[in-house]
Specification:
InterPro entries: Ig-like_dom_sf, Ig-like_fold, Ig_V-set, Immune_rcpt_domain. It holds the Pfam family V-set. Helices cover 11% and strands 35% of the residues. By secondary structure, the protein is mainly β. The strands form 2 sheets. A 6-stranded mixed sheet has the order 4-3-8-9-1-10, with no helix packed on it. Strands 2-7-6-5 form a 4-stranded antiparallel sheet, with no helix packed on it. 20% of the residues are buried.
Length: 194
């Protein structure tokens, strides 16, 4: 009985840690965009940062931050394969992880900085999915046999993958220019505990 109670307690603790964490999934080798909406009046004039959380409750190590002058925060700043840009008027911080790799998976935070303090705008869990086509055996691909009806016709075989997804936090989504595609695991985001 005690073991069952301990298991339930651990499950509840794990769920409470996951609360308010948004999961973003991306395919290895592709780019992933993370959107962190915030109250632009409350965080006006503050620098923003993207940091990687070390451990469950540990320190958050800064990966990249916006321009030191908040007036130039709209300029994209890079640190390696990670970029950050801030739409201060629209209240959206955008993080781009280019050429996503397995080591990029983990818990991150979007932060608003003021002095030595930092407010967490959003906790983000980045998951990196292996591209199933990277492991595709060419012998498994279906290639139609030659047919008399198509004699002399050149056929090119191609495989298409979606490059971009949009979420409700995406400025283009708000303008009605995008759709969310939920039929592919790498093209969605979902929130835990909202």
């Amino acid at each position: 009985m005690e073991a069952l109670l301990l298991l339930i307690l651990l499950s509840v603790t794990e769920l409470s840690r996951a609360q308010n964490t948004t999961v973003f999934q991306g395919m290895a080798g592709r780019s992933l965009r993370v959107f962190c909406p915030y109250n632009s009046l409350k965080h006006w004039g503050r620098r923003k940062a993207w940091c990687r959380q070390l451990g469950e409750e540990g320190l958050c190590q800064q990966v990249v931050s916006t321009h030191p002058s908040w007036l130039l925060s709209f300029l994209k700043r890079w640190n390696g394969s990670t970029a950050i840009t801030d739409d201060a008027l629209g209240g959206t911080l955008t993080i781009t992880l280019r050429n996503l790799q397995a080591h990029d998976a983990g818990l991150y935070q979007c932060q608003s900085l003021h002095g030595s303090e930092a407010d967490t705008l959003r906790k983000v869990l980045v998951e990196v999915l292996a591209d199933p086509l990277d492991y595709q055996d060419p012998g498994d691909l279906w290639i139609p046999e030659e047919s008399e009806n198509f004699e002399g016709t050149q056929v090119e075989h191609s495989i298409s993958r979606a490059e971009r997804h949009m979420t409700e936090e995406d400025p283009h989504w708000r303008r009605g220019l995008g759709k969310v595609c939920t039929d592919h695991p790498s093209l969605y985001t979902h929130s835990l505990g909202h």
